[in-house]
Amino acid sequence: MRAAVVSSFGGPEAVEIVEVASPEPGARQVRIKVSAAGLNPVDAGVRAGGFGGAGKRLGLGWDVAGVVDAVGVASGWSVGDEVVALAYGTAKPLGTHADQVVVDAGAVAVAPRSVDAVHAASLPLNALTAAQALDGLGLEPGRSLLVTGAAGAVGGYAVQLAARLGVHVTALAREGDEELVRSLGADRFVSGGVAPVSVDAVLDAAILGEDALEWVRDGGAFMGVIPGANPVSVRGVRTGAVEVAADGARLSELVALVDEGALTTRVAETYALDEVVKAHARLAEGGLRGRLVLVP
Ligand SMILES: NC(=O)c1ccc[n+]([C@@H]2O[C@H](COP(=O)([O-])OP(=O)(O)OC[C@H]3O[C@@H](n4cnc5c(N)ncnc54)[C@H](OP(=O)(O)O)[C@@H]3O)[C@@H](O)[C@H]2O)c1
Question: Quick check: is 256 in a domain?
Fold first, then answer.
């Protein structure tokens, strides 16, 4: 089968398609025939060496939608099941940017019925990250939250999930994104160099760091998206960063929200797997609204 890998770090052209043997699922694992796989900022980070692993061949891709085509013992899944999953890891030998991928059974959920595989493949990493970040903030209904990067993949899901919890969301995004983030459930929109006002918490998906921390009231909470790179706590603000965890049960809940129309999957463009270098180059240009998705 084909797989996108990086053997020496660099720009988009560092990504190669190689032929490898089909991976076999072990106990409590499944193999998924990939129908579609999201391309995320973390893949660009791995490609560029931001997560280490020099000297190893690293597989790319975390998000997958596809069909189970082999199962290990006690996987709980059957060949033919249509699924989505998160293939966690910055230093894995093979990822979801491939014809097939093996994942732990506990990372898998039944695919949404209401969207196609391309849209479903944009869900796992970023919806789980948004949900787990909100869990970490633990906001009660009626509390206020600033989401930075609210038009992005993590930020957009966070706006929808927080609004659904009854949290008042202020969305910080680019000038042209007001309509989008309001449609996702934001009460207030801010952009550019607006003077901070006080919110109970910030989810900092745009990685503004100390600038975002300024918005949090004394004793509030700050949740970043880069573990180990939080701004230093001030004024009693609790600071932390989400590190996404594979969780098939939680992913099932998010799939249900997609099927209810409560969570919106957004796809910018699709690329054939063989065009993976072009897709990385497009991601590097920035300014995307919606995910890039690879189709084998
Ligand atoms: N810790 C974890 O487990 C985890 C999991 C998933 C993602 N992440 C990280 O989370 C971050 C966000 O990921 P993503 O997939 O949501 O990225 P994304 O889709 O590119 O979204 C980022 C958004 O922030 C916007 N933005 C950046 N700077 C801004 C500013 N100063 N003002 C207003 N908007 C601004 C971007 O706009 P432009 O496109 O116009 O710049 C974009 O809309 C990435 O660094 C990713 O690696 C971490």
Answer: no
